[in-house]
Amino acid sequence: MSAAAAPGAGQGAGGLANLMTGRSTFGGNKRRRTTSTGPVMSEAQEGKIKLAFFVAIVGVVLTVLGVGTEFWVELAPAKNFYNNQTCLTAHYGLWKGCTKTLWVADIDPDRESCGPAELPGESNCTFFKFFTTGENAVIFQKTTQKNLNVAAAMLALFSLFLMVMGAICITMSLSKEILFFLKPASVCFVLSGVLVLLSLMVFHQSVLAFLASDHTVPLHHELSWSVSCVGCAGAVLIVGGVLFLLLALPYSPWQRCLPHKDSSS
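Structure (tokenized):
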């Protein structure tokens, strides 16, 4: 009787010990469920992810800088169009436009048109009414195309939203040490880069439509430094998204493309 009870007591003590040490079947299943979302990253992978995240952050900063400024395009008539002492130039972006009065004496003598807008002068800036009353802006007797301008602005805003979502995914991946979140982050950054470049193309079409609206005042136009920031931002964001996709792969693409030869061969 006592001999039969001894094994049961031993099993009960062993089960209690397993429960105390967390080695029960329930505890093991629970631990496997917490790691089933994806493989845990190593320190080397974490360093590569941080480097790719830095590349993406550079693209985000360039996008914010370009979208928030109004130096997308500069417009200028001939420097002697109004009088021989002052001339008028204009520049605008997605949200507002500015006109600036410059002194002809400050302009390069070899330059035929007024400008550039960086010269000192009296400036007057106003926000566009595309998003409030729906009115078009009139600059140098030419009328903007509000549909194209609004489309370019909406594409830029949606790209910024995707950048925020991608940054959240990378933050969760680094904090949880799980590679699963790299794939949605890659999609977000690649799409944001494509939308930034698409916004740039739509804005350029709006400028061409603006110039074609009236031909009474001949204008010289050129894309300014904000466009350069946005173009570089789109390329950098796409590169960052591709890097995240490569880091999310379960194997190294370089080892698949360039396998090491065995010493026997």
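Strands lie at 73-76, 86-92, 96-103, 121-127, 138-139, 142-143, 220-223. The chain has a mean pLDDT of 81.
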